[in-house]
Amino acid sequence: MLAMFFWAFVVGGLICVIGQLLFDVAKLSPGHTMSVLVTAGAILSGLGLYEPLVNFAGAGATIPITSFGNSLATGAMQEVQRHGIVGVLTGMFEVTSSGISAAIIFGFIGSLLFKPRG
Amino acid sequence: MPAKSQTWTFTNRPAILSTGVVGGPFEKKGRIAGDFDRFFEDLWIGEDSYEKAQRKLIEEAVSIALKKRNLKETDIQFFLAGDLINQITPTSFAARTNAIPYVGLFSACATSMESLALAAFIINHGGAEKVLAGASSHNTTTEKQFRYPTEYGGQKPPTAQWTVTGAGFAVVGTEENGPAPRITSATIGKVLDLGISDPFNMGGAMAPAAVDTIEQHLRETGRDPSYYDLIVTGDLAKIGRSIALDLFKQKNLDIRSEQFQDCGLMVYDKSQPVQAGASGAGCSAIVLYGHLLNEMKKGRYQKILLVATGALLSPLSYQQGETIPCIAHACAIEYL
Amino acid sequence: MANKNQNKTPEQKAYDQFEKKHEMKRPVLKNCIRAFWVGGCFCLVGQALTYFYIYMFNFTEKTAGNPTTATMVFLSMLLTGFGIYDHIGQYAGAGSAVPVTGFGNSVVSAAIEHRTEGYVLGVGGNIFKLAGTVIVFGVFSAFVVVLIRTVVMMWGGS
Q1: Which ipTM did the prediction report?
Q2: Which of A55, A98, B192, B246 has the fewest CB atoms below 10 angstroms from its CB?
Q3: Where are the domain boundaries for CATH 3.40.47.40 in chain B?
Q4: What's the CA gap between C18 and B207, in Å, rounded?
Q5: CATH 3.30.2020.30 applies to domain B7-174
Q6: In a domain, A27, yes or no
Q7: Does C128 touch chain B (CB under 8 A)?
Q8: Chain C residues within an 8 Å CB radius of B50
Q9: pTM of whole model > 0.90?
């Protein structure tokens, strides 16, 4: 268990460092950087490389935004196995819906409760 | 005889009769807090949107400037002003409140001197007896429009600048006897674009425009840089100022570092997290109409050239891959 | 964001070089260290939540990801709403933007900011102003990846 915490910290931290290098060296905007990372997650997932990373680093792989790309691709791949090529469309949000639903719900609740503070 | 230059000389000595300078809570902690007329405790100023709060800033600064001279809105013939917000709505809505015939202006952060130059011209040529000129900005309305929502955790690079929450307005008119701060000449700038496209580096984009306007002004007035006690830019901040000093050397303009100041470096204290310095249409207005005029009244400066600088981009132009065209307008103010 | 150097005049190119000498360099190493440890901490919190859901609520390792993500987004709502997340962001850069809390922050901050324009057009219309690109590119890249993989597997035999 402790080992998992350690690797979660290290791997998660390293993915963030990649993001920081995209910010500071490649001078990409946050929007561009996140798009690059999420696409990378999808590609790694398609190559079957993201699942082992999750097994190894736990939250270090599931918390960064790359995991969003992984979830989308995984959901699609699962549906394709069950229902053929149409699964690419139908399975996309299966695994990932909690993240987006939570963001919308808590975003809306946030707008009800909070005011910006500058 | 019509002039063939971009500089006007005002022989009828239009004067700044009174000023109103207001700021927000962050400016209250800054270096020139003592030169403001009023501070507001928060960015909402009792309104339900930041845009309405910015309108309130303008109304308050105008009201203070008028009160100091026992003037009413009906004593003013024209209201020349602008801001950074789309369609300059805060200024237009304030013009709705004060009901003075309104000339809305936009040259981004150079709007303050655009308005002062035009006001001085109108007064000098008998187009009015009294004109209100000024500009304003508000940190969060600007962030919301140009960059990110205020609570977004984006990381600003060290070249970024902090938009001032403040408004500075002046009543310009013909003054019987001196001494008063008078606008003796003004230079309208050209748009220059040297290919900078980083919206987080305004200073680097605007420096060439400032240098060009200063160069034109000195040439067309036949003045040597030493004529002025102070040449102050609007918001070049750290990077733009250092570039400008280098460009002066390249062009053989003998402008010394102590003589060359920047409003963007005067507003905030070193401890405040503003990266490269202050910016915003209100920046040059609050510094000139508050701090610099006070220093002139105390006798510290007699002749100031204020060169407000503006970056004429929009969020859309940036997304479409455009570079940042910039402009600088200058007014020479002398205590006579 | 494309390299515009090809379209610049010689004067512009010269100014670009000249200007860069005056720019303060970004503290890349310092930023990376901060991004590393703050990002790592967010992942530690996520790991703790995952174990919490596995042991207290009988989720499996596979399914614990869902409540973990939802909880992290909830936390980012609180941090954003109380005006803390923007300070974390300035300090940690990608360390706060890359974890899913950064995604939550981009949604919540946009929602909060645009309430002044009303709930329907303001909040509803702008809530994905920043996060939309992540969703669009995530979905599209997953679509392309899985399509290619499926086609390759069909032709090559699994």
Answers
A1: 0.93
A2: A55
A3: 7-174, 181-335
A4: 12
A5: no
A6: yes
A7: no
A8: 116
A9: yes
